[in-house]
User: Fold this.
Amino acid sequence: MKKYKWFIIVFNLILVLVIFNKSIFEKEKILSQGKLVLLKLAPVDPRSLMQGDYMQLNYDISNNISSDSIPKRGFCIVKLDKDGIGTRIRLQDDITPINEGEYAIVYTASNWSINIGAESFFFEEGQADKYEIAKYGGMKVDHNGHNILIGLYDDNLKKIE
Assistant:
């Protein structure tokens, strides 16, 4: 067994690095090629003593949905208006069918709500005033429905920086 010990350790290390780098590559691809979708935020505003300042995000498209009547995993289909703001059209089990001008966002349902992606936005301590005006969460969405939160936007659809 001693002969194989180092081989097993090195193999596992390489495997972990490959998986980690694949994940990074997929996120970078979403950032560079994904479609920007703005989602209206519903108000929530906590603070965590352990994690610092952050804003708990609640998206308007995930409100008024009974998680009892939908599958645990699926796709929230949104249609964008001329400003790029997404409105929920329907929830479905599979990514297809999807009509022209619609985009799919992966969701998971819990007992009380649905989660469509980044539910928290962390920011530097003392910067809370700057983010209080946030009205939209900006996400990059790929063709498979995976998304990454890229920032918060104000009423004028300008990214808050």
